[in-house]
Specification:
CATH superfamily: P-loop containing nucleotide triphosphate hydrolases
CATH topology: Rossmann fold
Strand order of the largest sheet: 2-3-1-4-5
Number of helices: 10
Shape: globular
Number of domains: 1
Structural class: alpha/beta
Helix content: 40-55%
CATH class: Alpha Beta
Radius of gyration: 16 Å
Largest sheet: 5 strands, parallel
Amino acid sequence: MSKKIIIGLVGQIACGKDTAVDYLVKTYGAGTHRFSESMFDCVIRLGLETTRENLVAFSEITRTQFGQDLFANIIVKDCLGDPNEIIIANGIRRMPDIEGLGKLDGFHLIHITAPARTRHERIIQRGEKDCEKDLTWEQFQEQALLPTETSIKEVANHAKHIVDNSGSFEDLYRQLDELMTKLQA
C-alpha cells in the first residue's frame, strides 16, 4: 500500500465506533485520533465532571468563540502527522468536521449504525462518562436532541459506506474486513 487511507467515522452515540476502531487498530495497525479527546482532556483539567452535558457545553462554547472547525483542524493536523498508512478520525459529528478532512487524499467517510434500543443498552454497559450507568431511556432520548447528536444525520448523509452494527462482533468485523478490502484495492 503506497497511499494513506484516512477513515472518518460518524455515527450516533454507542453505535460501535470505538469497537470498530479497536478492531481496525488491532487487525490493520491503524493510527487513531478521536474528536472528543481534546475536549475530554480540557474538561478534566478544568476540574469539571465528564458528563455529556459538560462536554457538549465545552464544545459549543469553544466552537462559537474560536470557529466551528476548531476541533477538525486539530484532527487534520493529527492525521497529517500520523506515520501510519491507515488512520482513523473517530467521532465526526458536524459538517465543519468533514470539510477539512474531506480535502485530504485517501479520506473515506464511514457511517456506523445501530438501533436506538441497542445503543441505549450499550451506553449503560460501558459507563464511559459520569452517570451513564444509570441513564434512563428518557434521558437517552433527551440526549439525542443535543446539538452534537442532531448534526450527525447531516454528516452521515455524506458517507460513501455504511456499516450496520446491529449484530454480533463477528458480523461487524466481517463488514469492516470487506470495507478494508475495498479501500485497499
